[in-house]
Design a protein that fits this description.
This is Cysteine proteinase inhibitor. This protein is mainly beta. The protein has one helix and four strands, in the order αββββ.
């Protein structure tokens, strides 16, 4: 979703999931801390996805740490 919303100008590729949590509410909320490659170098992001009736919605995708090059 992040790559599509930014017209694939600096695409990111998932390299690892550092931490994951979920919460059952009216559907399921997933919060993940992920490491990605691409874009402007490797970075760490926090993302939250809401799943309801099989549909996924990206709630946020925020950088939480950027590695120094």
């Amino acid at each position: 979703m992040h790559n599509m919303e930014n017209n694939f100008k600096h695409p990111l590729r998932l390299t690892s999931i550092r931490r994951g949590l979920f919460q059952v509410v009216d559907g399921v909320n997933y919060r993940l801390d992920v490491t990605v490659a691409g874009g402007n170098g490797g970075s760490m992001y926090r993302t939250e996805v809401h799943e309801r009736l099989g549909a996924l919605e990206l709630m946020f995708f925020t950088p939480i740490y950027k590695e120094l090059n």
